Amino acid sequence: MDVKSAFLNGYIDEEVYVCQPPGFEDHEHPYYVFKLKKALYGLKQAPRQWYERLNNFLLSHAYERGKTDKTLFIKKAFNDIILVQVYVDDIIFGSTNQNLCEQFIAAMQGEFEMSMMGEHNYFLGLQIKQLNHGTFLSQTKYCKELLKKFDMENCKEISTPMATNCYLDLDEKGTSVDQTKYRGLIGSLLYLTASRPDIMFSVCLCAKFQSNPKESHFTIAKRILKYLQGTTNVGLWYPSEVTLNLVGYSDSDFAGCKIDRKSTSGTCHLLGSSLISWHSKKKQACVALSTAEAKYIAAGSCCAQSLWIKQQLSNFGLNLSKIPLLCDNTSAINLTKNPVQHSTY
Amino acid sequence: MHEELNQFARNEVWTLVPRTSEMNVIGTKWVFKNKLDGQGVIVRNKARLVAKGYYQEEGIDYGETYAPIARLEAVRLILAYACMNWIQASPNGCQKCFP
To answer: In this complex, is the C-beta atom of A30 within 8 Å of any C-beta atom belonging to chain B?
Structure first.
């Protein structure tokens, strides 16, 4: 659900004065100004004040705040639990008990003006379809609008987002393209990666050339759109099974970047058989000297992510004792077991 | 526009005070948006009054501005977790999804 005019709810600490709205000046005092008690859209402090207000409201209703994630609120009652995840003014919540949900809705409606979403289940542009044996996440509508926006709605389909032998470089001699349009395309595609791990790598690769886009980069980016044309209804499937175990996978591409010889890490995490998080085309911050080193760095960032998910799950009331982390390089695995060797690498 | 101003009144957003010289008064303007339905037909004309935040000066008009925002991973995690535990997670209020 969604809070109406959320920012108008935040109390303001500072003294802020605004002009009277154009066209609606007070007849008796046309030169008076308004002193704000609550925040207004466009003010720098508005989002913070809104979060503060919602936070205080939920805490006063015996909700606990997540230990690492400050936008997660939890309330436990006997064996039941309600989880509330806040994304500015969009709120998603779930509970093991219908009553807890109803209580939450009633409390929220008593305090703020709320709007429940319509027939379609949307959250942040993600289409959420709940079925008997699982949940399906997709961005079909957004994807179609994206194709329309860039005049590609009638383009030919292509089966892959990028050619395997595709090496992009700065291409300094190439003809420049409109930077605004290129950035707009990359931005829209990046948002689409919220439910599309398949295009993550190619989008991130194109995103590296945003500061000086050339014709060659634009062609590659448009190829992604062609791929999307054939796969608009692809999404993530979260089956409702009972095995709850978290597995982290990591891999790396040694010296994958032709410009500065840095390696690339890729990681992903599966909870049961649902894909939770993924990183692809994450350029490592330092130059690795060997494949083992590159894999070790990838495993490191995978571990960090595992720890975050573990913390989040423990907030949900699920404590995992073992989280396997998979890596395909023996030297890198040995390296993790023996920290003495760190100095040699 | 009246709808928006009514909302201001209901939420008690502001009070009218006389202007003095030491106030840093921030301008306001209206932003209009036509809301479309699925077929692209205008269903509602929406007006939103916004403050020109770019006239604000740090330390005088505002202090801290940081606000936490959920990670997308967190949203996916909660959905996946809810699905496995027969929790009814729904942005659309409470629907009985897993009977």
So the answer is: no
The answer to whether the CB atoms of A312 and B51 lie below 8 A apart is no
Rounded to the nearest angstrom, the gap between the alpha carbon of residue A215 and the centroid of all alpha carbons in its chain is 29
Non-local CB neighbours of A278 within 8 Å, separated by 6+ positions: A197, A200, A266, A267, A268, A269
Interface confidence, given as ipTM, is 0.76
Could you give phi then psi for residue A13, rounded to 5 degrees?
-90, -40
Amino acid at A150: F
Tens digit of pLDDT at every position of chain B (99 positions): 777 777 777 767 777 777 777 677 777 777 787 777 767 677 777 777 777 777 777 766 676 777 777 788 888 888 888 777 655 554 444 333 322
Q: Are A264 and A281 in contact (CB under 8 A)?
A: yes
B8 CA: distance to closest CA in chain A (Å): 8
- CA–CA separation, A94 and A136 (whole Å): 16
Yes or no, beta carbons of A85 and B70 under 8 Å apart: yes
pTM (predicted TM-score): 0.78
Q: CB-based contact (8 Å) between A44 and chain B?
A: yes
Beta strands A122-123; A264-271: pairing state: unpaired
> How far apart, in whole angstroms, are the C-alpha atoms of residue A1 and residue A93?
9
Please say whether the beta carbons of A246 and A309 come within 8 A: yes
What's the one-letter identity of residue A75? Answer: K
- For residue A277, the Cα-to-chain-centroid distance in whole angstroms is 9
Question: Would you say A40 and A78 are in contact if contact means Cβ atoms under 8 Å apart?
Answer: no
Hey, are the CB atoms on B88 and A8 less than 8 Å from each other? no
A285 contact partners, CB below 8 Å, separation of at least 6:
none
Residues in chain B: 99
- Using an 8 Å Cβ cutoff, are A186 and A221 in contact? yes
